[in-house]
Amino acid sequence: MAKKVIITIGRQYGSGGAEVGKKLGAKLGLDVYDKEILKMTSNESGIRESYFHIADERAGKKLLYKIIQTMVPENTSPSLGSDLVSSDNLFRFQSSVIRKLAQEQSCVIIGRCAEHVLAGEENLVRVFIRADMNARIERIREKGYYAEEDIPKNIKRMDKERRDYHRYFTGKDWESIENYDLILDSSKIGTDGCVECITNYLKVRGLLDE
User: Fold this and answer.
1) Can you identify the CATH homologous superfamily of domain 6-204?
2) How far is the C-alpha of 38 from the C-alpha of 17, rounded, in Å?
3) What is the pLDDT of residues 32-62, one digit of tens each?
4) CA separation (Å) from 188 to 60, 112, 180, 194?
5) Is the pTM of this model over 0.85?
6) Is the pLDDT of residue 73 over 90?
7) What residues contact 60, with CB distance under 8 A and at least 6 apart?
8) pLDDT (tens digit per residue) in 178-193
9) What percentage of the chain has pLDDT greater than the value 70?
10) Quick check: 6 and 125 in contact, CB under 8 A?
11) Domain spans of the chain?
12) Measuring CA to CA, which residue among 198, 5, 205, 38 is closest to residue 108?
């Protein structure tokens, strides 16, 4: 890398965004953080990891609090008080870990509103991966997560959970073009094509040696 760079990847469910992130990390020699952030956050805060998994990217199934649609949680330090395992507090802990990662190294961070958490960070590259529904259905079918007839509704459910989660914690539309530097369609160019596009973009930005 020519400079320290942080690449965040938002993704529709079934678009292959996590695969893009892992391939990109392998190509550039960068650490990739996805579910690992939950483990790191649990270690730092002393809160059981299961709490983070329950709250992870779901705005409608939070622990110990009610969602207030019009309110974005304050960007404050994590609490060790009675709201220890509230979803707002879990998000603050998680965000603290993300910021520390960004301060310490170049890396790829998948999901978790990282493009918002790291807003203003120098050399931040915000990517969103999408795909058409047929391609997403095929990808989820290959993973064998759901019965055939349940795949489309679960894709829509997961997208809604991510959309609601993002709206709640950022006050912004998850899929808005204003949130990202690059929006790529993996159903058109594949995950390898997405990696190539991101790599070329980094070169144009002067963030990657030729």
Assistant:
1) P-loop containing nucleotide triphosphate hydrolases (3.40.50.300)
2) 18
3) 888 766 555 555 555 555 555 655 655 433 3
4) 32, 25, 19, 9
5) no
6) no
7) 67, 161, 164
8) 999 999 999 999 999 9
9) 74
10) yes
11) 6-204
12) 5
Looking at residue 183, its amino acid is: I
Taking the C-alpha atoms of residue 88 and residue 92, their distance in angstroms, rounded to an integer, is 6
Point out the least confidently predicted range of 43-47, 65-69, 204-208.
65-69
Measured distance CA(59)–CA(97) in Å, rounded: 20
Asked if residue 133 lies in contact with residue 31, where contact means CB atoms within 8 angstroms, the answer is: no
Token couple for 132: 């058409």
Measured CA angle at 15 (ends 191, 26), to 5 deg: 35
Q: Output the pLDDT for position 54.
A: 55
User: In the numeric block, which tokens belong to residue 56?
Assistant: 């992870």
- What interhelical angle do 186-204 and 133-143 show, nearest 10? 100
Q: Which two tokens stand for residue 192?
A: 């390898």
Cα-Cα-Cα-Cα dihedral sign, residues 95, 100, 103, 105 = negative
Each residue's pLDDT tens digit, 119-139: 999 999 999 999 999 999 999
CA-to-CA dists, residue 42 to 36, 89, 91, angstroms: 10, 12, 11
Q: Which is nearest to 31 in space by CA: 124, 111, 107?
A: 107
Q: What is the rounded CA–CA span in Å between residue 44 and residue 95?
A: 12
**Distance from C-alpha of 61 to C-alpha of 2, rounded to nearest angstrom:** 42
| DSSP H helices in 29-144 | 36-45, 49-55, 87-104, 114-117, 133-143
Distance of CA 196 to the CA centre of its chain: 20
